[in-house]
Amino acid sequence: MSKTSSLICALITTFIWGTAFIAQDTGMDNIGPMTFNASRFFVGFLTMLPIAIILERRKIKLEISSNKKLFFKYLILMGISLFLGTYLQQAALQFTNIANAAFFTVFYVPLVPILLFFIYSIKVHWSIWPSIGLCIIGVYLLSDFSNSEIMMGDALVILCSLFWALHIIFAGKFMEKFNIPIFYAALQAALVFSLSVFFAYFLEEIVITKILMEYSSILYAGVLSGGIAFTLQMFAQKNIEETPAAIIYSLEGVFATLAGWIILSQFLDINNIIGCILILFAVIFSQVTPTAKKL
Known about the structure:
This protein is mainly alpha-helical. Helix content is 79%, strand content 2%. The protein has helices at residues 3-26, 33-66, 68-92, 98-105, 108-120, 129-143, 153-177, 181-203, 208-213, 215-236, 242-249, 252-263, 270-287, and strands at residues 122-124, 292-294.
């Protein structure tokens, strides 16, 4: 798989995540965040498992047996990171507005190189930091955060960004060792579903009729985001370093804004447009500069 193909996968992933933000927000009208999370990842699992069996069944056993301990280590680390990241993001939407959520979520961009340094002793090249700065300024303008108040849910979003950063890092490290991205994405979705439904049983009221009332949001966020997008993320990070990948994923805010403009007829002002342009420059610059080196 070429770097160009990985870049295309990253952009499609980001587009799906951005447009799915509306479904994630509207999908909690009748159910709690944990129940919504369980439903979407169950749909994601059902979507990707048959594809994995068809395309990867001959190499699944071989890949896992090559380093079974490391395989399940990454599965647990990524599954828990994704579970906590998606749940905290869903829960935060109940207590904060989309502007605050968009701004604080992007904190995973600077967190990725910081965590890479402390966990793996990998230092990103100095030239990547201007891209990170452009990215944060762009999201600041894009989200209209300057017109927002600090809200209770913002702390949840900041914590959520930590787990998103860890998930991006572990995805990159997994793809360095294994090559069954579709099957792995299906297992990851199954683990997030299991954790979500377990906690939803104790913390929320699970009512099938209410879940079915949100079927359109669950299907969109499940099939496309919980299934296809997280699978394409694995393909994307086969040839893209973790920090540049995080910068690309920040385009999620751009796609979410454009979706709101097209679908919800939300107004775009000059700050929103400048923000989109800055994030685009950040993505382009991150792809033409050196990335990382081991100390």
